[in-house]
Structures are given as C-alpha cells and as structure tokens.
C-alpha cells in the first residue's frame, strides 16, 4: 500500500490513478475527499494531526507527501501558517513514517527553492535563495526529508517540481495556471492576457511525467540529493500562447498588461541527475499535453476551427 498525502489535489488525483493502474493499494490522506472515480481508501485528516498520522501510515510500503499550501501570495501574507503546513507538517509525516516502520517518503519540493536563477539550465547545485516563505518552507522541508536518510536509515527522495501542467488543473495554480487561463480565454472567445512582454520563460512538465517520477522515487532506494523534475525545455509565455492558438486555429491576439512584481525572468531545469538517479525521462511533449487540454475544452465548447 502507498499512502498519498494531499492525494485529492491535482497531482495527487493523477498519481493515485497511476498507482492503482500499477497494482498498488492506495490510501489518500487529505482534508478533502478524492474526486469521483478514484478507487482509493480515503482518510480525512490534516498533516498537522501528528497523533493520527502514525496509525494512518501503518502497513504502508511508502509515502508520497504532496499535502501543502501552494499559494505564494498567501505565504507572504501569513508565513507562519505556510511554515506550519509545509515544513512542520512534513516533519510530522517523517516522524509518523519513522515510527510506523515506513522507510520511503517521496516529497514534493519545488523549483521555488532556487529563487531567481543566475545561470541556466538550473541544476541541483545551483544556490538556493527562495523569494517567498513558501519557497523557504519547501527548502527547509526537503532538508529534513534528506536528513532522515542519514539519521534514521530511511530511503527518502525530494523532487523539485517545476511548472507542472495537465488536465484538471485549477487556473489559480501557481505552477502553470497560465496554461489553464489561456485555455479558458480561447474557449470563451476572449483575448488572452500576457503580463509583461511575454518573453519570460518557464519549464513546463506534464503531470504524467511527474507521476512517473514519484513512482520511480517510491520504488527506488532513496537519494541523498534533491532531484529536478521538469522537461528540460525552456518555453516563453508568448511561445506557449502561440502554440495553443496554433493547435486550435485561434487568432494569436493577446492583450499585454504590465509585468507582475516578483516574477522571475527565466527558468529551465537541468534534469540529468534525475535521469541518473531514478531513471526519470519525460515523455510528454508540451504540444501534445496542450492539445489534450484544449481537446478536453473542445468537449465543453467547440473551439477548434476547421482548417481552410
């Protein structure tokens, strides 16, 4: 059995499906129930409930720890709450795993630990300089995750996720809400909004590839270093929108707005270490993942224009 904290969220929903398809029993620990159709045991609980966590983890082969507060702006407004869930909550999970005899925890860290990169692509040896309490808490948490390997003989892995995207994502997601926002605008016949000049770049990685990384981590022997989980491809926001418009035949006519404060200019990951340590190899091309999202939207409202 694999326990997935935060298993009712976007990544968790996809991961539970993958684990079940792979033949695992899955227990979801979350404050909200899984989506309909997810065939997993559900325990309603918070990672702040340290007293209950050990019992929830008994008999598990491993834990994928996804539960987190992910809103960066909220972390700035309330750093203590963010730390309580993202850092202290992770220690609760680690302690529960240790006392339940579970040796493997795969932890969802974030590219936010790097802050503004000064060299690209960003490898795991790039200095960490978080720009928000969210990034600082994730950095603290991943260091505890890896510390438990050397202190207690665990086989944990910390995965630094870049801009995860895929079907079922909320437009408010700080990871790749821009894709969902663009898809919504195209669907509704509105002009998509680009903040700044559109030349800011991100490394978009499909949720299926992220799920594969978590499965590999939980089936592996742990890793002493954090691992970047990304596509290794740098894509500008303008290029992203142009690709989406091209897929469905929509006009490329965005509205440009002033750039938002606090956004990093460029981001792309070096993923060689993840390839070496866990055999990670992203397979979903950005264009294919975008097509799947737009085709799902097309089922709600016809957006694909016939080719002339």
Walk me through this protein's architecture:
The chain is an alpha/beta fold. The protein has 2 domains: 2-164 and 206-229, NAD(P)-binding Rossmann-like Domain (Rossmann fold), CATH 3.40.50; 166-202 and 232-269 and 283-300, UDP-galactose 4-epimerase, domain 1 (Alpha-Beta Complex), CATH 3.90.25.10. It has helices at 10-21, 50-57, 72-77, 79-100, 133-152, 177-188, 207-219, 237-248, 272-278, 286-300; strands at 2-5, 26-30, 41-44, 62-65, 105-110, 157-161, 163-165, 193-195, 201-202, 204-206, 227-229, 235-236, 255-257. Strands 3-2-1-4-5-6-11 form a 7-stranded parallel beta sheet, sandwiched between helices. Strands 7-10 form a two-stranded parallel sheet. Strands 8-13 form a two-stranded parallel sheet. Helix 4 packs parallel to helix 5 (133-152), helix 6 runs parallel beside helix 8 (237-248) and helix 8 (237-248) crosses helix 10 (286-300). The longest helix is centred in the first third of the chain and has 22 residues, at 79-100. It is globular, with a radius of gyration of 19 Å.
């Amino acid at each position: 059995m694999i326990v997935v904290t935060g298993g009712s969220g976007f990544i968790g929903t996809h991961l539970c499906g993958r684990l079940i398809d792979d033949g695992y029993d899955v227990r979801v620990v979350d404050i909200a129930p899984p989506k309909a159709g997810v065939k997993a045991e559900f325990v309603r609980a918070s990672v702040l409930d340290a007293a209950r966590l050990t019992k929830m983890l008994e008999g598990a082969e491993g834990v994928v720890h996804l539960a987190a507060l992910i809103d960066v702006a909220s972390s700035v407004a309330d750093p203590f709450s963010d730390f309580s869930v993202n850092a202290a909550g992770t220690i609760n999970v680690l302690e529960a795993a240790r006392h339940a005899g579970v040796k493997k925890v795969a932890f969802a860290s974030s590219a936010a630990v790097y802050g503004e990169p000064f060299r690209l692509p960003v490898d795991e040896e790039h200095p960490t300089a978080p720009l928000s309490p969210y990034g600082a808490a994730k950095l603290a948490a991943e260091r505890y995750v890896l510390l438990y390997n050397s202190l207690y003989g665990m086989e944990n892995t910390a995965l630094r996720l870049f801009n995860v995207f895929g079907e079922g994502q909320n437009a408010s997601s700080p990871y790749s809400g821009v894709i969902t926002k663009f898809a919504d605008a195209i669907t509704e016949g509105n002009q998509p909004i680009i903040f700044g000049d559109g030349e800011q770049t991100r490394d978009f990685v499909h949720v299926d590839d992220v799920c594969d990384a978590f499965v590999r981590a939980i089936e592996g022997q742990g890793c002493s270093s954090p691992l970047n989980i990304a596509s290794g491809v740098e894509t500008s926001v303008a290029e992203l929108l142009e690709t989406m418009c091209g897929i469905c035949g929509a006009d490329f006519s965005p509205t440009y707005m002033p750039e938002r404060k606090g956004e990093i200019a460029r981001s792309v990951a070096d993923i060689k270490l993840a390839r070496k340590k866990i055999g990670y190899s992203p397979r979903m091309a950005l264009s294919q993942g975008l097509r799947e999202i737009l085709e799902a939207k097309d089922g709600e409202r016809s957006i694909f224009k016939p080719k002339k």
